[in-house]
Structure prediction request, 226 residues.
Amino acid sequence: MTSQAYAGPYGAEPRHPGWPAKLGPLVVRAGTVALRPIRLRDGAEWSRIRLRDREYLEQWEPTSTGSWHDRNARWAWPSQWASLRGLARRGQCLPFAITVDGVFAGQITLGNVIRASLRSAWVGYWVSSELAGGGVATAAVALVTDHAFAVAGLHRLEATVRPENGPSLRVLTKTGYRQEGLFLRYLDVAGAWRDHLSFAITVEEIGDGVAARLVAGGMAHRPPTR
Prediction:
């Protein structure tokens, strides 16, 4: 897989390359994983999962104002959707819904997209607790990483994760991200300033693609074509 070349700041670079798009599918233990743009009608399932999974999710997510219920109630989704869609239209992020067997199961976002001579972004994701350990997050990270380099024209992706978050550390390791350092007291998470490990990957490191690497390693497979 090669990275698509884009013009510099004075060229004809698209305003938001790589979004909207549909990515996948990849088949893992939990089912068939695909990515698509977030939708306004995702609100009901988004809220149901996040309210149910508060204990599972809150320990890893940045502290924010308001209660967990208010931030994740169904009525909170339209403003979040509109904000993410606005950033996507300005080329500043690529927000995707993660689906498993066609059903909304989480989110993955390439955020803080910077172009010109840097061409980087961070990747963040969450998945329903019912699917934990089923390969969903690994497949989603693989799909979005390949897309970032091959279509969105980026050169480097970064991710940060708390050292205690073993499942997320395994996701990043399986998808080829390498640890670069430790950020002390980096983010306010669950009411305290938490250390985070920093991971990164560049286009030169992915070879034929991260998804292809998962397939070759027996961690995923492509569905049969009709």
About this structure: Residues 136-150 form the longest helix (15 residues). The helical segments are 43-52, 54-58, 68-72, 77-89, 136-150, 166-174, 210-216. The two ends are 24 Å apart (CA to CA).
